[in-house]
Amino acid sequence: MxxxxxxxxxxxxxxxxDVEAGAxxxxxxxxxxxxxxxPAGHKVALEDLAEGADVVKYGFPIGHLLSPVAKGGVIxxxxxxxxxxxxxxxxxxxxxxxxxxxxxxxxxxxxxxxxGRAGVRNELWIIPTxxxxxxxxxxxxxLFEKELQNYPSIExxxxxxxxxxxxxxxxxxxxxxxxxxxxxxHPNAAGVLVVALGCENxxxxxxxxxxxxxxxxxxxxxxxxxxxxxxxxHGLGLLREIAAAAKDDRREDxxxxxxxxxxxxxxxxxxxxxxxxxxxxxxxxxxxxxxxxTVLTEVPEMFGAETILMARCQDEQTFDRTVRLINDxxxxxxxxxxxxxxxxxxxxxxxxxxxxxEKSLGCTQKSGNSIVRDVLLYGERLKTKGLNLLSAPGNDxxxxxxxxxxxxxxxxxxxxxxxxxxxxxxxxxISTNSTLAANKPLWIDFNAGVIVDGTPAEEVDKxxxxxxxxxASGTPVNNEKSGYSEIAIFKSGVTL
Length: 496
Prior knowledge:
Blueprint: E1 3-4, E2 12-15, E3 24-27, E4 30-33, E5 43-45, E6 54-57, E7 60-65, E8 74-75, E9 80-81, E10 107-112, E11 118-119, E12 123-128, H1 134-145, E13 156-159, H2 170-184, E14 189-196, H3 204-211, E15 219-223, H4 231-245, E16 252-255, E17 260-265, H5 276-289, E18 293-296, H6 306-311, H7 316-335, H8 346-350, H9 356-363, E19 372-376, E20 386-390, H10 396-405, E21 410-415, E22 427-431, H11 434-439, E23 446-447, H12 450-453, H13 457-472, H14 478-482
Parallel strand pairs: 12-13, 12-14, 14-15, 17-18, 17-21, 18-20, 19-20, 21-22, 22-23
Antiparallel strand pairs: 1-2, 2-5, 3-4, 5-8, 6-7, 7-9, 10-11, 10-16
């Protein structure tokens, strides 16, 4: 197979691999001869299209042509322009599909916390309240790593340096505080050491109030300026106390209904909406059928397909929150004198994605067909099972951090271009094409590209469920093997 037509309404087809000029193929009884070389993931016209004509993919317009394109000609970002502009008016027109409960309940091997929540890792985290003590946190980590063998229940110790916690005002200050507080409460942590300086905006006393009630045997705080002598040695002692409290932690059977999984994509290509993103959508529906939770974010990458999500909101109140989610992000762009629809990225364009509509229609497939049950602000933690929407930008590390901070124990990240990064929970990379999976085995954890290579989707779905259950039960993904665990916090305002 050389090309695939995704929807019978489409007037373009997508190249499965690089195709030379002059190649002939048949689709729905129509013979097409390529006018130019067609890179894998890129689009060719299935009929003669005039200047200004809508290009249809996934059954929806993805923009209009800037110049005529003959049948078999290539359509890309050079001759296709978005139809999107400005703020839109929306009305609630529900189109709801209830996902039937699964007949058989699935389980993973996780850690049951004292408050009843479930974690998929048993790690010690060192969280600085301010960037000034990043070095202190990292030195504590390095020293404790030499002692890990004394605490077999602890899987890893990780420090999470960041640049914030001081010289921030308003929303940026609150964003930092909220994300760090969310981390303190995350169930993947066997325990947390919070390292403060003392003079920062993010004052330890106020931060502790925000954090609220914790298990004091598992969460400890230190203010470096108040410690006489070696603050690193003091912190190391506190970490030993936390590790001792976790010595009896063991994995046990936990229902999948307690899994919270983040849905993310980055470095998308023309295959994203054909292979990996629909795979995540089917997986999301399976998680929901089990009584579990999935979270879709990257609000700017919903633009152009947002009405599909709005139609799936459970009620008008959820719809109204979704409208605010979309419009608040558009207003953020406009406040900073930036075009709302200046997307996709150079990597997206090289991979065959030409407009934001095309990107969004592919991205939103990660959410499957489930009903939207709740909408979360940035830094807000999950409280409702089922499919949730989360406010966060498209930036990969910022959005992945937001998903983890919301309470997701795992982030599933589809990519057609590849990336090695990981946030503070397992960040599994799912490739959209087999070439990427073959070229980057140290980045890619699961290859969804086999779907266009001929493997039945049902077989891939089963393998993927088994893969995620394995990750939840302790199998490390590549970012963990490489030690790539980072956080990034959304910043939009003034730095003093």
